[in-house]
Write a sequence for this structure.
């Protein structure tokens, strides 16, 4: 399998995103979550990505219960800076004392003394990045975390962070239909040996090929709030996905494998982290590591589905304004 080194840890170039086992999408009970996490380790996944936010701590608890006894088999990543406030509501908070407490709580839930890679999940617009990073540096010096990462930050924010400390990983949504990292942060990743960890690399399941009807999803599924999945946009986007599916089939691969192989071909420092609660899907995703595309195939795949022919924004306006990487588009 193709490998990538993150701050001294060698991982497979496709990791596993754990979020969907605890929130956002179709229900996943604890038994299925435990079975899936053990199965993905058996398959060869060795990079698990979670966060304090996911299920408001439930996802970290699940990892401890499911694979805590296999801790030496995977590189562990978690995140702070986006969690619940005193009223139990989702909140971005980058104050140093909050980040430190979040880390301590995550260590307890995960049942570990050290998290290999720890991200600032979102930059707090009310807290300078230097102050938030100062807390992560202190956590690193204390041995509670290993490498420091950032998520969804703009190029200027990443450069300010690099002026303070090495950044091991930059996590961002990156896929055929979401290519914001190409507008600056990829260049910085290349220059500073930063892993670009791509979440939602199969477009929140749409590039997996199974989602055909939004009415099939639970009413509280996160995708109902996303413009690209709403009436009119969804049907138009499905046409683009179907065109790619036909091309992928002609190459002897699945839609998801073509999508992931395209992403891997963009740069050697990219690490997609698709998530699924189904073991067969997880294996299909991992097998994209065996796919080698020609330059012509990479170009064709990138033309069939791209931001230029996809309808709708990736988030609604309120969420878009929270994302530092999108701030140049949402200034009012």
């Amino acid at each position: 399998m193709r490998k990538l080194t993150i701050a001294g840890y060698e991982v497979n170039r496709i990791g596993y995103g754990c979020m969907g086992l605890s929130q956002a999408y179709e229900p996943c009970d604890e038994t299925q979550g435990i079975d899936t996490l053990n199965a993905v380790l058996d398959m060869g996944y060795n990079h698990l990505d979670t966060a304090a936010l996911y299920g408001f701590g439930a996802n970290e608890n699940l990892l401890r219960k499911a694979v805590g006894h296999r801790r030496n088999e995977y590189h562990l990543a978690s995140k702070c800076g986006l969690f619940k406030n005193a009223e139990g509501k989702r909140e971005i908070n980058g104050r140093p004392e909050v980040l430190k407490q979040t880390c301590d709580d995550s260590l307890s839930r995960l049942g570990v003394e050290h998290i290999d890679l720890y991200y600032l999940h979102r930059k707090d617009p009310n807290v300078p990045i230097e102050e938030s990073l100062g807390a992560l540096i202190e956590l690193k010096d204390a041995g509670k975390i290993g490498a420091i990462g950032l998520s969804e930050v703009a190029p200027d924010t990443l450069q300010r962070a690099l002026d303070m400390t090495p950044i091991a990983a930059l996590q961002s949504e990156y896929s055929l239909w979401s290519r914001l990292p190409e507008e600056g942060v990829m260049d910085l990743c290349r220059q500073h040996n930063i892993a670009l960890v791509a979440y939602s690399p199969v477009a929140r399941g749409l590039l997996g090929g199974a989602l055909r009807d939004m009415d099939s999803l639970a009413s509280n599924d996160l995708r109902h709030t996303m413009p690209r999945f709403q009436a009119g946009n969804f049907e138009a986007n499905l046409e683009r996905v179907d065109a790619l599916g036909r091309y992928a089939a002609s190459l002897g691969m699945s839609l998801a494998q073509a999508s992931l192989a395209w992403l891997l071909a963009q740069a050697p420092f990219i690490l997609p982290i698709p998530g699924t609660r189904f073991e067969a899907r997880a294996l299909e995703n991992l097998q994209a590591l065996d796919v080698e595309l020609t330059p012509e195939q990479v170009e064709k795949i990138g033309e069939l589905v791209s931001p230029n022919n996809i309808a709708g924004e990736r988030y609604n306006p309120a969420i878009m304004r929270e994302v530092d990487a999108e701030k140049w588009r949402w200034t009012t």
Summary: The mean pLDDT is 96. Residues 233-250 form the longest helix (18 residues).
